Amino acid sequence: MLRWFPENISTFGGDIDGVFALIYYVVGFWFLLTEGVLFYFIFRYRRRPGQPARYVRGERLTEVAWVLVPAAIVLMLDLGIDAASGPVWARVKEQQPPGGVDVRATGKQFNWEFTYPGPDGKFDTPDDLTMDNELHVPVGQNVHVVLRSKDVIHSFFIPNVRLKQDVLPGRTIKAWFNATKTGTYEIACAELCGFGHYNMRGFLTVHSADDYQRWVHEHWPAAATANAGAPAEQNG
Amino acid sequence: MQAVADAHHAHGEPSSFWRRYVFSVDHKVIGKQYMSLSLFMALIGGLTAYLIRWQLAFPETPVPGFGFVPEPTMYEGVVPPEFYNALITMHGTVMIFFVAMPFLLGAFGNFLIPLMVGAPDMAFPRLNMMSFWTLCSASTLLVASFFVPGGAAAAGWTGYAPLSADALFTGVNWGLNLWLLALALEFASFLMGGVNFLTTAINMRAPGLTLTRLPLMVWMQLTAAVLFMLSVGPLVGGAVMLLFDRTIGTAFFQPARGGDALLWQHLFWFFGHPEVYVVMLPGFGVLLEVFPVFTRKPIFAYRTIIGATIATGILSFVVWAHHMFVSGIDPRLSMPFSITTILISVPFAIMIFSMVASLWGGSIIFATPMLFALGFLATFTIGGVTGIFLGSATVDIYLHGTYFVVSHFHYTLFPSVFLGGFAGLYFWYPKMFGRMLNETLGKIHFWITVVAFNGVFIPLFLAGAAGNMRRVYNPMQYDFLKHLAPIHQFATVATIVLLIGQIPFIINFFWSMFAGAKASDNPWNANTLEWATTSPPPHGNFEHVPTVYRDPYEYSPPGAAKDWVPQYAPTA
Q1: CA atoms of A85 and A82, how far apart (whole Å)
Q2: Which residues in chain B are contacts of A155 at CB distance < 8 A?
Q3: Same domain, A200 and A141
């Protein structure tokens, strides 16, 4: 089923897909086993003349073990899945790696507003740049997105980045990602937000380092003076 | 309590048409009323599914057969985005609250609990009548909401605030108010029903019918009633608060005026997750009644199943935030909820394995009820295992709000409600109406239903894996989803087949009522008490209160003359 996933272009996306694959094989095994036994029993124990049913109540421990032992194995595998899942979740959602570029994303019926801090590197100053539905980031750098909403709940979803985060009015939520491949990718709203929800589409453009400088130079106000590279400082 | 019931019985059978068939206090009539209402609402739910699926497969083209709907609801048969949002909202609301619950709890709970425990009626017959008519009013309000200016509610069946909290955001005013009123009345109705279910099953059991001799269907109905009654309170409060936000200017859920956007989700899902089991457990109950009869052997691990059911019920109260992993709750909260959610697989595994084990060494008869029950088990398993993906908070980052979720919950609910429900309907129809359903039509109905259902939702798992968001009017707006057009078209064709596949059932249902073969009192050679009386049972159910001597599933016991020994057969 993984081959139906859109191409992953983020540093953590591979880990998320990895947990998906782990669960896929674990539950796939149990699914095939359960269905296999089910259909074998259906076939094997169909009514046949002269073969009465066996009176088995499954109340003795030796009998019920046939159910409880597999269930105990399921429990172990559950804990294994949790153990594999937890660190990835923590990395994506609980931590904010330092460095990189900052951007604000504000959801409103039915657009994504992206605000860049401008040459001074600070928000809420006159040189901020706001664009509708266009998110430009440099490749290989941490991108910190501050999510807000002006009206209802939206959900900031970049399928290729494996990032999804609801955007709540009245709260400020931080998300981050680090794109590994240049190109243009789609941003979607993944939470019903009204009649225009289906068309609340944005674009993520991942630039190479040079391209990003060029884009900053062309678009950011105040002609992107000497310190145009400031927001694009390198980090390891 | 027995005295109360006898006193009611002593009232005798009402003679007027109205008291007998409309405002009846007889649990059997009320059960049939619930069934009729839920099947009628299922038609509406099915039609909304057809409209939704058509739009997804052939966006913005006229839906065949719907050219008559006036503007601004539809435009010469084309579904506009506003109406699409109303359709998905109403589909969910209708199917969960006005089909699943009335069918599995309302119809089967009402009809079966008194019969299975050997009681003449429910403990509170008038309350029972009131609960049905409250639900009927709720259904009327909900259907009426399609026709008010602005159309029906369009904020999703989950009604997330603040989208739902102010008419400004969706353009729907009265439609959403009526939706909230309908929900509040529906909850009130099932609270009354729950009181009756509990009291009847606990206090009015026939002599000898101990709790560990109770048919599993009654156990499931009891557990479902308890789960519902314990979880619904916060949502009733939430619904009233939301109605106040919309009508008298409060701002519980509106951050712009000091409210909170996540509060509604907590109130909704604190109820919403146990609700899943409220719907699912009675479906399992049907399966657990049907299996022993058509395998001619006891259910495997009766007590263990009861234990697993109760464990599931308890766990279901501490998993609700798995609907909210990426909602903006503190991310540190997600892993604990992820662990509890995935843990639910353990009691479920116990139940599923026990059901499979119940087939071992059986003598399986493939009558229509058994086919539906087996289809239920085989398809439900897909719903079960796909829940693990979504229970993992990490994977849910990507899959949340996609068609993967849509397929997953349809794979849990459709088998429970429709495959389980039909298994029960084919199984108990003779007891309800005194006639048998036609087996050939039943088998045609089964095969079309089960194949077409899988045809709808297997492809949609792939759409979900590809990232296709749910509740999106036209997914083809997105370049990364364009390649999914054939998948959506396939699922839509399968939906149409699924809907057409219900025609044999509708014919069978009405034709058999008048022309079906007469049913004997116990056509399936079953053991539980509902088969101890006539088909259909008289007013008051039993001529004499039956006495119970044994466990419910004594099929093929060693040394018995026949392969079944009813609960009411005296010990030698």
Answers
A1: 5
A2: 326, 401
A3: yes
The answer to whether B78 touches B61, Cβ cutoff 8 Å, is yes
- Evaluate whether A12 touches A92 at the Cβ level (below 8 Å): yes
User: Which chain B residues are within 8 Å of A24, Cβ to Cβ?
Assistant: 389
Cβ atoms within 10 Å, residue B514: 8
Q: Among residues 163-182 of chain A, which lie with CB inside 8 Å of chain B? A: 163-171, 173
Q: A198 at the B interface (CB within 8 A)? A: yes
Residue A37 vs residues A45, A83, B239, B374, B431: alpha-carbon distances, Å? 11, 29, 45, 13, 33
Token duo for residue B199: 């009291």
Nearest-Cα distance to chain B for A217, in Å, is 29
Measured between beta carbons, the chain A residues lying within 8 angstroms of B462 are 1, 4
Contact B93, B33 (CB under 8 A): no
- Chain A residues closer than 8 Å to B385 by CB: 27-28, 30-31
B494 lies in which domain range? 2-532
Which ipTM score applies to this complex? 0.93
CATH code (residue B183): 1.20.210.10
CA angle B504, B509, B515 (to 5 degrees): 110
Contacts of A195 in chain B (CB under 8 A): 80-82, 85, 154, 170-171, 473
Cα–Cα distance measured from residue A135 to residue A115, given in angstroms and rounded to the nearest whole number: 9
Residue that terminates a domain, selected from A54, A79, A94: A94
3-class DSSP state for residue A55? coil
B481, closest residue in chain A (CA to CA): A6
Q: Is the Cβ pair B469, A157 closer than 8 Å?
A: yes
Tokens, residue B288: 């657990």
Closest partner CB to A71 (pick from B346, B366, B473)? B346
Q: What is the pLDDT of residues A139-173, one digit of tens each?
A: 999 999 999 999 999 999 999 999 999 999 999 99
Name the closest residue on chain A to residue B327, using Cα atoms.
Answer: A166
Q: Domain check: are A85 and A31 in the same one?
A: yes
B129-161, pLDDT tens digit by residue?
999 999 999 999 999 999 999 999 999 999 999
| Residue in this structure with the two tokens 């009335």, named with its chain if needed | B102
The boundaries of the domain holding residue A202 are 101-232
Which residues are within 8 A (CB) of B480 and not within 5 positions of it... i.e. 6 or more apart? A6, A159, A160, A185, A186, B466, B467
DSSP 8-state class, residue B327? T
User: Token pair of B541, please?
Assistant: 């159910």
